[in-house]
Amino acid sequence: MTKLWVNWAGDQQCAPARLRAPRDHAELAAELARAADHGHRVRVAGAGHSFTDTCLTDGLLLDLSRMNRVLDVDRESGLARVQAGMTLAALNTRLDDYGLAFPNLGDIDVQTIAGATATGTHGTGGRLPNISAALHAVEMMTADGNVVELTEDSDPQAWRAARVGIGALGVVTAFTLRLVPSFVLEGIERPIPVDEVLADLDSHIDGNDHFEFYMFAHSPIAMTKRNNRVELPAAPRAEIVDWFADILLSNYAFDGLCRLARRRPALIPWIQRGAAYAGSYRRQVDRSYRVFTSPRLFRFTEMEYAIPRAHSAAAIREIKDTAKRFDSPMPIEVRWVAGDDAFLSPAGGRATCYIAVHQYQGMDHEPFFRACEAIFDRYDGRPHWGKRHYQSAATLRTRYPEWDRFAAVRRRFDPDGRFANDYSDRVLGPVSAAQDPVDQYG
Question: Which of 188, 218, 226, 186 is nearest to 334 (CA)?
C-alpha cells in the first residue's frame, strides 16, 4: 500500500517508495543500505512544518520521531546531548527539568530540533543568533552507514556546514547543545503605531532582549512584543486566561475571520483594522520557553526573508505598501537576530532583519509572494530554507559568501547525491564531481 506523506500546511505531499521510522543507528544504517541497493534517494522528515518541498522524495523518506531521547546532560557546562527526532516542545520541558534553556527560540515549538536547525529557524533578539548557533556538536550518519561527530575542533568546515545543512549532507541523528541556565521572561504586548515604531526602531531592538511585531497591510497599528529577562519567580497565567487569549482569540476567532475573508475579499481591510485594534496590553511572567512560544491551530503558508538589519525600516514600509494590493487577511511578522557563522545561515555574517508574509489556506499566495520577493531581492535577501521562495542555486550563490565551502563539504560527505531531491537540486544545484576548491580555503 502506498504511504502518502503530507506536510503540516497540507500543501506539500509525496508518495515515497519506503517510509520508515528507525529506532536506532542499526535500523537506520540498514535502511540506508537498502536505499542504496534499490537506487533510492533519501530524505528526512521532521514535523513537516516546512512550507517548501524540502522533504519530498519518491525514494526513502525517514521519520526520526522514535529517536527522541535526551541522552546526557551536564548542568555545570550547560551541554546536553539529544537525539535529532525530539520536538522543541518536548525538549524545552525536559531541559527545564535540568535547569537549562535555549537562549532564544522562535514562536513555534512543534518542529524537531533537527528540522528547526537544518532550515535556520530563529527567534528574535538583536544580540542573539538563530537556534543552530546552539549546536556544539552534530552527529550524522552518511550514506554508507558511517557515523561521524562534527565539532568546531574536529572538522570546522563540516561543522559550519551541518549546522544549517538542509538535509543535504547526511542523516543527522543527534546533537550536543550548548545551553544557558533556565530564566524567566517578562513578555509585554501592546499596540503602537507602525510609524512610531519605525521612527525609533534601533531603540526598540537594542533596548530589549527580544523585540518583534506584527502588522497588517490595512492598519496603522503594530502589535509589538518585547520579552526581557527578569529576576522574578515564574507566574504562569491561569489556564482559562491562556485559552481565551491564545486559543479562542488568536486561533479560533482569527481563523473564522480569515474564512470570511476568503469568501468575501472586499472585507479584508475592515477585518485587518478590526483585528489590529483588538490587540491590547498583555503581560506575562513565566519560564522563557512558555513566553517565547504560542500555538498555531489554523493552516496557512508563508514566505520569510532575511535582509541586512540596516535596511529594516525601508523594506518594512515597502512590504506593507505592497501587501495592500493583494488579498491576504494574514499579518506581516518582523523580527531581528544577530549574525552567525554557519555557511548557509540566512543570517550568516550580518545583523539581520527577518520579514515574513503569510497567506491563508485556500487563497492564492503566488502573486503576493512573488511581489514581496522582488522587494527582498533588492535588499540582498536570503530566504528562510523552510519557507516558500522562488530562488535557484544560480540566484542564491552570490548571496552567500561561504556557498562554495558548503558545496565542498557536500561533495565530501555525499558525493553520489544520495541525500538530494528536486528541492536541493534546484536551490543548491546537483552534487558535482568537480575538484573541491580546498586550496583556497586551507
Answer: 226
| Residue ranges making up the domain that contains 206 | 184-389
Separation CA 130–CA 337 (nearest Å): 7
The span from the CA of 10 to the CA of 317, in Å, is 31
C-alpha cell at 91: 525538549
147 and 196 in a single domain? The answer is no
Same domain, 234 and 253: yes
Is residue 35 included in any domain, yes or no? no
* Interval 122-139 mean pLDDT: 98
Which grid cell is 35?
Answer: 536505499
> Can you tell me the distance from the alpha carbon of 316 to that of 354, in angstroms, rounded to the nearest whole number?
10
The mean pLDDT value of the chain amounts to 95
Are 321 and 193 contained in the same domain?
Answer: yes
Distance set, CA 291 to CA 23, 104, 108 (Å): 33, 11, 11
Of the candidates 2, 24, 22, which has an alpha carbon nearest to the alpha carbon of residue 14? Answer: 2
Task: Let me know: does 421 contact 41? Beta carbons within 8 Å.
Answer: yes
pLDDT tens digits, one per residue of 225-235: 999 999 999 99
Q: What is the DSSP letter of 209?
A: S
End-to-end CA distance of the chain: 51
Contacts of residue 241, defined as CB under 8 A and 6 or more positions apart, other chains included, come to none
Query: From the CA atom positions of the chain, what is the Rg in Å?
Result: 21
Q: Which of 112, 5, 1, 12 is nearest to 60 (CA)?
A: 5
Domain boundary among 166, 181, 196: 181
- Please state, in angstroms and rounded to a whole number, the distance separating the CA atoms of residues 142 and 263: 49
